[in-house]
Amino acid sequence: MEHLEDERTVRIDKATIANIMEASRSSDESIIVGVRIRPLFSRDGEEKGSSGILGVSGDGCCALENPEARESVTGGESCPEIKRFQFDYAYSDSSTQEEIFRDIGAPLIENAMSGFNSTIFAYGQTGSGKTHTMYGSADDAGISPRIVDGLFNRIETAKKNEKLSILVQASYFEIYNEKIRDLLVGDSAETGALKIKEHALYGVYVQNLSSFVCGSEQKVSSLLSQGNQLRSVGATLMNEQSSRSHSIFTLTVNVKGDGKSYFSKINLVDLAGSERVKRTGARGGRLTESVNINKSLSSLGQVINALAKKSSSGKSVFIPYRNSKLTRVLQESLGGNSKCTMIACASPASASYSETMSTLAYANRAKNIKVKAVKNDSSILVDRLKHEVASLKQKLADMEREQRSNDADDEEEEDDRATDKYNAKIAELGSVIESLNFDFEEKKRQSSDLENQILREKAEREALMSELEATEKSRTDTLSELAALKDALDDAHAALEVAVEERDLARETEEEFYEELRECEIDRNYLRARVRDITLDLKDKQAEYNDAAAEVSKLRAEMDARRSSISVPEEAHKLIILRSFMETMCATLAQEGNSGDRSPRDLNEQQLCAALKGHIERLLLGESAAVVASPSKRYLEDALRYAQSLSET
After folding, report:
1. Which end of the chain is more exposed for a tag (fewer CB within 10 A), N or C?
2. What φ, ψ does residue 641 adopt, rounded to 5°?
3. What is the pLDDT of residues 41-51, one digit of tens each?
């Protein structure tokens, strides 16, 4: 990547570069898609002897059976609902790694040796066999180690027969939780903080990513093994060695000699598998990893959908490469300067039907994407840049002649500006030419320096190992402290469970309280309605009472009017007065008789007259309205005079 570092300061118009390289552009090609079925495992829960729900045929056809839905056919029988897909290659669970390499890996090597970038990426749900397909095992190598072996065999043949000078560089990084981490530098300070950049000539690349010159297959295998040991993996319910990151291993092949000068890249991409949390049982950090994996794969699906739509319609479509780091680093592979191959790994288990269906639909859309790979021919680019420099120099000479013939100040200033512009353009193109004509011997010297650096790093690692052994005792002490902390954590967990139970009880009590409150609210509304009804009834009763009171007042007035109009005979008044006299006398006698030893017979006439006089006076004062009416008052006065005369007598 050092030649990229030198060229980052050179500003080149992308449209100009595209025009310069148009002659080396290949015709449109579709992404090659192959599907591989993994064998059934005991954890899949299938019946013994079952072949699963997914099958393939030799012509690239895949048939997926829905284990639940059924279609009725003539005769009352039934057959499974089957969905069919057509791909470039289809491999059954009995296929071999050599077979896949022969169909997919071998053509990639020839593309690389011809100057074309190539990419292979494996996609599928977790536990579907992606990493096994890409890297395999010690006894059964995957497609990546086989490509490395085949590439160096092809390089040795080219060096002997074509007398070419070929230099191979390797880099390896992963995308873990949307952070890029270099897998070939171990504990480097920059690990996990790498950034993505874009260059006008070389496209999208990772800044400050380490790149090692490899002179043999063993060197590449060593770097690949080192990177795989540092890669993020973890156990889930579906896979004991589940990849928790997307990894990209890149080989850059530089070819020079016999009038040729070109380079190419081989990108070997192992994607992390899509996951369903319910099935994988992801918790805590595993859950965060799962979310980021699914998010980046979703972004990749959006990019594939947009590219497929663009290829089918021929119209300009926005491609969301920047939605995730995965789609950004795969921008050149999916829709740019690269021949691309996708291996879709699928599970034949019935429990994985929905995931397998999604994987096949994903691959079916990807095969519609058209790519235009460009041959990275440095000689063509240099020749065209030289021609551009010559043209600019000619224009500069013409302008100088015009400048000498024109003495106007304004025109001189304009010519000076144009001259500076063309000089700057010539300088830019000269820088590009120098960067494209990099010296392979210098690269070899850099390789030697890198190897020396590796030796120094190994010595440093040995020193670090001794330090690690010295700290082992302190680690043991720390473990004992952690055990004590674990006990304390268990106690805190028990207390937390009690608190949770109390909280649940409080919630239930609160719910009951709110239920009673709602019932009280209902009763209050009912009582309000009753009060309104009673108030209305009282108003009606009040009106009735007022009417009755008015009627009584009217009747009393009529009675008073009638009473005043009735003329009572004088004899009747006399009888009333006499009756009153008799009652008064009897009451007086009774009072006097109770007040002492005297009996009513002991009262003389004077005492009776005095009592009668008092009674008449009370009547005249108005104590008895019944007998003090106007017709009887005259008789009372007569009786009073009579009583006075009796008392005087």
Report:
1. C
2. -65, -35
3. 877 666 555 66
What is the dihedral sign for C-alpha 411, 417, 419, 422? negative
Distance CA 270, CA 52 (A): 25
In this predicted model, what pLDDT tens digit does every residue of 432-461 receive, in sequence order? 666 555 545 565 566 666 667 767 777 887
For residues 169 and 213, what is the distance between their CA atoms, to the nearest angstrom?
A: 4
CA distance 207 to 351: 42
Tell me if 229 sits within 8 A of 240, measured CB to CB: no
Q: Is 16 among the domain residues?
A: no
- pLDDT tens, 24-33? 444 568 899 9
**pLDDT-wise least confident of 116-125, 256-265, 396-405:** 396-405
How many CB atoms within 10 Å of residue 91? 21
Read off the pLDDT of residues 206-227 as tens digits, 9 standing for 90 and up. Answer: 888 888 988 889 999 999 988 8
Q: Pick from 404, 437, 470: which residue ends a domain?
A: 470
CA-based angle 492:497:503, to the nearest 5?
Answer: 120
Distance in angstroms (rounded) separating the CA atoms of residues 43 and 261: 53
Say if residue 178's pLDDT is above 70. yes
Within 314-438, residue ranges assigned H as helices are: 325-329, 331-335, 353-366, 378-405, 409-436
Query: Residue 8 falls within a domain, yes or no?
Result: no
Residue 595 maps to a domain: yes
Same domain (yes/no): 533, 574: no
CA distance 349 to 125: 12
Task: Mark whether 351 and 401 lie in a shared domain.
Answer: no
pLDDT the model gives residue 423: 72
**DSSP for residue 597:** S
Is the same domain home to 119 and 158? yes
Of residues 147, 112, 134, the one with CA closest to residue 220: 147
The predicted structure's pLDDT at residue 127: 82
Tell me what pLDDT residue 2 has. 37
438 falls within a domain? yes
163 and 240 together in one domain: yes
Q: DSSP characters for 481-532? A: HHHHHHHHHHHHHHHHHHHHHHHHHHHHHHHHHHHHHHHHHHHHHHHHHHHH
For residue 360, what pLDDT is reported?
93
Last residue of a domain, one of 566, 599, 623: 566
Of all residues in the chain, the percent with pLDDT exceeding 70 is 66
| Total structural domains within the chain | 4
* Of 223, 144, 219, residue with least CA distance to 186: 223
**Tokens describing residue 194:** 């790498």
Q: Could you tell me the maximum CA-CA distance found in the chain, to the nearest angstrom?
A: 185
**Full residue range of the structural domain in which residue 403 is found:** 381-470
Same domain, 288 and 203: yes
| 198 lies in the same domain as 218 | yes
**DSSP, residue by residue, 400-411:** HHHHHH---HHH
Residues 207 and 287 in one domain: yes
What's the alpha-carbon Rg for the chain, to the nearest Å?
56
Phi, psi of 212 (to 5 degrees): -110, 135
DSSP 183: S
Classify residue 32 as exposed, middle or buried by CB count within 10 Å of its CB (0-12, 13-18, 19+).
buried
Judge if 476 and 462 occupy the same domain: no
**DSSP 8-state class, residue 104:** I
- Bigger pLDDT: 378 or 633? 378
Q: Give the total residue count for the chain.
A: 649
| pLDDT band (50, 70, 90) for residue 430 | low
| DSSP code, position 190 | T
Residue 369's SS3 state is: coil
What pLDDT is attached to residue 490? Answer: 86
